[in-house]
Amino acid sequence: MRLRYILPALLIGAGSALAQETPIVHDGEFEFLRAQFGEAWDAQDVEVDAKLTEIRAANGGKPPNFLYILIDDVSFGQMGDRKMNYVMGIETPSINQLATEGMSLMRMYTEPSCTPTRTAMLTGRHPIRAGVEEVKVALVGEGLPTSEVTLPEILKQVGYNTAHIGKWHQGDIEQSYPHNQGFDWAAFPLHQQVQLSLMIPEAMRSNAMLGYVPEGQNNQFLLDERFKPYGLVTGVEAEAGGPALEVDMSAGEVWTQAKYEEMNERYQRQALEQLERVASEDAPFFLQYWPLYPLNFVYPDQAISRNGGFHADKLQLLDGWIGDLLAKLEETGTADNTIVVLMADNGLMYHYEGSSGLNQLIYRGGKTQHLEGGVRTDAFIRWPGVIEPNTAAGDIVHVSDIFTTMARIAGATAFIPRDRVIDGIDQTALLLNGEGNGRRDYVYVYEGPVLRSVVKQEFKMHLPAPGQPGAAAPTYNIYRDPREEHPLVGYSLWAGASFQDMIKRHQKMIAKYPHSEIGKGTPYEGIENLRPETELTRDVFMSWQ
Amino acid sequence: MRLRYILPALLIGAGSALAQETPIVHDGEFEFLRAQFGEAWDAQDVEVDAKLTEIRAANGGKPPNFLYILIDDVSFGQMGDRKMNYVMGIETPSINQLATEGMSLMRMYTEPSCTPTRTAMLTGRHPIRAGVEEVKVALVGEGLPTSEVTLPEILKQVGYNTAHIGKWHQGDIEQSYPHNQGFDWAAFPLHQQVQLSLMIPEAMRSNAMLGYVPEGQNNQFLLDERFKPYGLVTGVEAEAGGPALEVDMSAGEVWTQAKYEEMNERYQRQALEQLERVASEDAPFFLQYWPLYPLNFVYPDQAISRNGGFHADKLQLLDGWIGDLLAKLEETGTADNTIVVLMADNGLMYHYEGSSGLNQLIYRGGKTQHLEGGVRTDAFIRWPGVIEPNTAAGDIVHVSDIFTTMARIAGATAFIPRDRVIDGIDQTALLLNGEGNGRRDYVYVYEGPVLRSVVKQEFKMHLPAPGQPGAAAPTYNIYRDPREEHPLVGYSLWAGASFQDMIKRHQKMIAKYPHSEIGKGTPYEGIENLRPETELTRDVFMSWQ
Predict the structure, then answer these.
(1) Are B270 and B331 in the same domain?
(2) Phi and psi at residue A327, in whole multiples of 5°?
(3) In sequence order, what E strands does A463-518 have?
(4) Is the dihedral of CA B56, B62, B63, B66 positive or negative?
(5) Domain total for chain A?
(6) pLDDT of A353-390, one tens digit each?
(7) Do β-strands B376-377 and A244-246 pair in parallel, antiparallel, or remain unpaired?
(8) A197: CB partners within 8 A, 6+ apart
(9) Tell me, what's the pLDDT at A256?
(10) Position B6 pLDDT exceeds 50
(11) Are B465 and B427 contained in the same domain?
(12) Do residue A396 and residue A320 come from a single domain?
């Protein structure tokens, strides 16, 4: 959607000079760091600016392109590392190679689930600040509100071409669609993968979705035939501001695993096509590829991985596709001035554990949980000639930092709104100067609207149960106890003192800048070719509201 | 001790020709593989022999030297890998570098505890075949029997110089000492690290050994002052067949953490000295360095690792020492013809979990357990010009394979005894030809005398409780469920059929070649300078037997 926060024309392009005059509103915890390191950071920022100017000059005045690949539901350790490849019996050579060509961000924290992680990256904010929790698979009439200013919107202000391909999961209402949130072009499923790969006959036969298909059970007492999603919009395509069209789905057609696989192949094809298109233009680009794979609940006809699980096989397939995309980037001649970021959005959905292969690895927990297994993900960033190859950084990074950092690298910091809290920290110095130059040593970890834990340095406190005193909160040393199994009761006073101060600072900033509301509306508005069954489903949904 | 199995003189040096005529007795499971692959392996062995001959010719007729470094109690993933370094906050750059210079054995299985793993490597056999279970910290009057034929004894038959430095843990009786089991020279503690680093005042003050020192508790009801080890022999040194002398310990002296640290430093110094000595001689060498670190239970004055735990810090220190040793190997000019193997003996002793940093990582369980966390260890092998650098192999290897493989590489296969089961498989083809050329797809996993699980390919069956039918045994897919948390009940019939056949084959071989007895004797015989308190302790020990 159009920017609601309009900058005076004279400021366009003024960049960091303005930013220093009107600082970004960060959380209280960051201000505590700025009080200690502000002067050193200001001095370092002069060098950072000089380096960014130099890089841009070396590229004919063009700021770097961004290729942002966000993979769904992958545990920390599942990709980019030989040792863990062997543990799981999955080969990810393309991602391993990418890891050696850039910097591995070893303490990347996300939100614990798909929608909030993606919102945090797009807006630079903990999603709860915009009322966003988790967007469900079914109809909700909710989503990312127009009032949020997204990274592609900011980048468009300084001339970027933008495109989005793949999973979106930011809501089923018009204002939330990617082509209304800063993308020139978008191809995406309206919902997510549950109805696309799990709620299908094949998944029932794989023992992953019991009784979903009527033929799979005795229906003697069945009343509500609409308990299971029906007629949902599948994949759509659109240009910015224009109408969306559902593709590859006819009235009355039944969704199948074959269609899901075709959809994945189409997105891969479109990622390649869009990359060719935006790379051929003069303007810099921001290309976002959010694959649906490895999410998949049907066994392959012939396993390609040693693991053979339905998730593992698609991850291995996807790794090859990413190799193809990076090869295409090379072919276009734009690779040298393109920053590639590849990461996962959260841990494995280990609720489907067991024989599926969706199990815990190094860290305990998984998707939906504040445990490290939910919010620690693999993350790699390549910037040829700038980021030292084959490096790694143990500094803490949060997914919202991508927003602020990419905005700065693009010279668009001035377009970050100043009327709200921005959680994302500018980590440009970390990318340019390497490990130890991060500007964050904390993360607040939410599950939906609830603050569940606080990370500071090597410690992590799980919030006490409601009504319990702070001293009852278990605190863990993440290096010594990566699985958060042995709270430091009796070994530290952190839980009762310093961590409680952190929480108070966070709450005071929320009081000063209250959360706004999630966007609301009629589902599927702006899609021109709704199928009759889709219209029926939407009408029923709206009828009782 | 001298070889009991004496070969006719004419066979000395006859090597593999003889070996083919009088095959090594392997377990039944291996014969099932040989029935399927025997012809292909025979053909491959002709090439392997040619390659070994060629390598030896290129080194003036001298077979390769061996430097075997065995590290105590380290979890799979703790060393040699950047990702896991970051997880634990421990840097192991020297070992990581070694990993890139050779092959990482990604499925190395050990026995689950120190003594049995070391026995398996020395004898090529599951230790229970010689009656060896776990040798305790205190006086036992037991140990590795003379009747076992060790790898250094075999290598001596073809002219190797041998030396052992560091942990030994094969028993407190004369026949078990390393200088009586094939080593020309040895420096080692008679027992292990528990009384050297845990049963000391400093460990009590680190909250790791409660009440060990009388001053640490009220002794109102104390009767037995000898419940805690007293007067045990600490470190000794000896030449082959000669008397041993205890070093650095006077009558009445109290053992301390400072003395433990000095002992570790001495072994490191002696490893460097012995390496210099054996490298300067014409004969090939087998040098064995088994550090006592990282076992340690006292916090450092100033942490060197990000982890800061007492185990982590010593692992990081040890990593630097290993770097020094490898640099020394380079200096001596023998690195090119030296095979370096570095591995751990079993998983972390996570019974000291919690704030210590001794916690579970990828695999569940640890030392003493048949779970993957107990028996899967990091293992790296470097052989310049022969093993492809920066490779990895997912083939299953058991620590006993080192015995058989090193014997073959040294041209000493003919000296492997044929009157007993040898569990170690010759894995030379794997080293020469890389991943996929391993000759084992199974492991029997014992806890002491009890068979607790059976690994075959990607599956692992935990044996059912006594009296339970085979079908009740939980079976796991190790790739999909590395933590062995979700047994495949209902997903496979392996437990009830094929795995039971494997166990029967194993039992039948035991019936045919029954286990022998552990060595027995009077503790400390052959040590010339026993302290009075040591003599007292020994006399009391012997008095009631």
Answers:
(1) yes
(2) -65, -40
(3) 475-477
(4) negative
(5) 2
(6) 666 778 888 999 999 999 999 999 999 999 999 999 99
(7) unpaired
(8) A203, A257, A260, A292, A295, A296, A297, A298
(9) 94
(10) no
(11) no
(12) yes
Reported as a single tens digit per residue, the pLDDT across A219-264 is 778 788 777 778 999 999 999 989 999 999 999 999 999 999 999 9
What are the angstrom distances between the C-alpha of A342 and each of A32, A74, A99, B228? 31, 12, 9, 56
Answer whether A114's CB lies under 8 Å from A139's CB.
Answer: no
The Cβ of residue B474 has, within 10 Å, a number of other Cβ atoms equal to 17
CA–CA distances in Å: residue A67 to residues A106, A164, B326 = 20, 10, 42
| Closest CA in chain B for residue A491 | B355
Query: DSSP labels for A293-312?
Result: TT---S--SS--SSS--HHH
CATH of the domain at B28: 3.40.720.10
Is the bond preceding residue A64 a cis peptide, omega within 30 degrees? no
Report the C-alpha gap between A185 and A271 in whole angstroms: 11
B→A contacts (Cβ < 8 Å), by residue, are 77, 80-84, 86-90, 104, 106-107, 306-309, 312, 353-357, 359-362, 392, 394, 458, 477, 479-483, 485-486, 488, 491
A469 and A530: one domain? Answer: no
Q: State the complex-level ipTM.
A: 0.90
- Supply the pTM of this predicted model: 0.93
Q: Do A486 and B361 touch (CB under 8 A)?
A: no
Indicate if B490 and B347 belong to the same structural domain: no
Q: Is B510 exposed, middle or buried (0-12, 13-18, 19+ CB in 10 A)?
A: middle
Is A42 part of any domain? Answer: yes
Identity of residue B238? A
Residue B535 covered by a domain: no
- Alpha-carbon distance values, B314 to A459, B166, B259, B317, B321 (Å): 22, 15, 15, 5, 10
Other beta carbons within 10 angstroms of residue A205's beta carbon come to: 14
Q: Do B486 and A354 touch (CB under 8 A)?
A: yes
User: Is A191 found in the same domain as A60?
Assistant: yes
Q: Say if CB B448 and CB B454 are below 8 A apart.
A: no
- Which residue is listed with tokens 């430091």? A488
Instruction: Check A486 against B353: CB less than 8 A apart.
Output: yes
DSSP annotation string for A191-246: S-SIIIIISSHHHHHTTSSTT-SGGGS--TT---TTSS--S---EEEEETTS-EEE
pLDDT tens digits, B360-405? 889 999 999 999 999 999 999 999 999 999 999 999 999 999 999 9
A307/B359 Cβ within 8 A:
no
* Distance set, CA B457 to CA A217, A342, B114, B435 (Å): 36, 33, 25, 15
Take residue A194 and report the two structure tokens written for it.
């549950």
Coil, strand, or helix at residue B388?
A: coil
Nearest-CA distance B87 → chain A (Å): 6
Residues of the domain holding B358: 9-218+226-432
Closest CB to B479: pick one of A306, A394, A488.
A306
Residue A224 is assigned to a structural domain of this protein? no
Which residues is B103 bridged to in the sheet?
B381, B391
Question: Residue A453 falls within a domain, yes or no?
Answer: no
Q: Do A104 and B87 touch (CB under 8 A)?
A: no
CB contact under 8 A, A89 and B479: yes
The first and second tokens of residue B215, run together, are 């001053």
Instruction: Tell me whether residues A359 and B481 touch, CB distance under 8 A.
Output: yes
Mutate to test the interface with B, among A78, A81, A83, A306 (most CBs of B within 10 A): A83
**Can you read off the two tokens belonging to residue A122?**
């797009």
A508 and A532 fall within a common domain: no
Decide: residue B513, CB within 10 A, 0-12 exposed, 13-18 middle, 19+ buried. Answer: middle
Interface test with B, best of A479, A483, A484, A488 (most B CBs within 10 A): A479
What's the gap in Å between the CA of A402 and the closest CA on chain B?
21
- Are residues A368 and A497 located together in one domain of the fold? no
